[in-house]
Design a protein that fits this description.
This protein is of the alpha/beta class. Helix content is 40%, strand content 15%. It has helices spanning 20-27, 45-51, 77-82, 93-98, 103-115, 128-132, 136-147, 175-193, 195-200, 214-217, 235-247, and strands at 5-9, 35-39, 56-60, 87-90, 119-124, 158-161, 203-206, 225-228. Bound molecules: phosphoenolpyruvate. Residues 9, 162, 167-168, 206-209, 227-231 line the site of phosphoenolpyruvate.
């Protein structure tokens, strides 16, 4: 059976009072809860790992590609691991756009995450123009090939498909579109890494996942969970998404 993972990306939201949501979330988890990962802003990482109750793990939202050095304001994967966090989001479209991160940058970040013992949640996704020009699979194939280093194992990487036009917009692809892209990613992973590894890598869908659309999204066979932004900020919103994943 494949892993099921519900990951929350708090982005640049929340101060220490938000840590209460971790406890509230753990109280609302179903008995057969999937893996739950919360990625708070970097200043909260230490306290989040201390506050995280059983069943809730912590991740960061980005890491630098170098292990250390003169990179003012940046955070290395080793520093993240030192907080007790186990995961790091890399290649989020907001970083690819606002920080001009390339596939090569994301590839280097994946390697540095692995070196520190972190599991990268590697994001890929097409813009609306690409979707409308029928270029989605080309874009996804290119990002996957360019961002994912050799050295992937069954357990060391999670991939999140996040169509950029669905992030924070309330719009989501149809189930058929979600199935098409996730099946395509699975096929590419098997072709590159072999059936054993390619079949085991968890694929998450991200982009406006809400309590009322989660069950539909989790119908897709190759969707192992979700990367959730806005609806992960409050336990009351995230818990029903987690329950829908548990029931899928
Ligand atoms: C995200 O930023 O990764 C995301 C999926 O955001 P939202 O759920 O708010 O669309």
């Amino acid at each position: 059976m494949r892993r099921k993972i519900a990951a929350g990306n708090w982005k640049m939201n929340g101060t220490s009072t938000a840590l209460g949501e971790l406890v509230a979330l753990s109280k609302a988890l179903p008995l057969n809860a999937p893996e739950v990962v919360i990625c708070p802003p970097a200043p909260l990482l230490f306290r989040a790992t201390e506050a995280a109750p059983e069943g809730v793990r912590i991740g960061a939202q980005d890491c630098h590609m170098q292990a250390s050095g003169a990179f003012t304001g940046d955070i290395s994967a080793e520093m993240i691991a030192d907080t007790g966090a186990g995961f790091v989001i890399i290649g989020h479209s907001e970083r690819r756009a606002a920080h001009e991160e390339s596939n090569a940058d994301v590839r280097a970040k994946a390697r540095s995450a692995w070196a520190a013992g972190l599991t990268p949640i590697l994001c890929i996704g097409e813009a609306l123009d690409d979707r409308e020009a029928n270029n989605t699979l080309d874009i996804i194939g290119g990002q996957l090939a360019g961002s994912l280093p050799d050295g992937v194992t069954k357990t060391n990487t999670i991939i999140a498909y996040e169509p950029i036009w669905a992030i924070g917009t309330g719009k989501i692809p149809t189930l058929e579109q979600i199935i098409e892209v996730h099946d395509f990613i699975r096929t590419r992973l098997i072709a590159r890494f072999g059936k054993d590894i390619g079949d085991a890598i968890p694929l998450l869908y991200g982009g406006s996942v809400k309590p009322d659309n989660a069950a539909m999204i989790f119908e897709a066979e190759n969707v192992a969970g979700a990367l959730v932004g806005g609806a992960s900020l409050k336990a009351d919103d995230f818990a029903p998404i987690i329950a829908a994943l548990a029931a899928s």
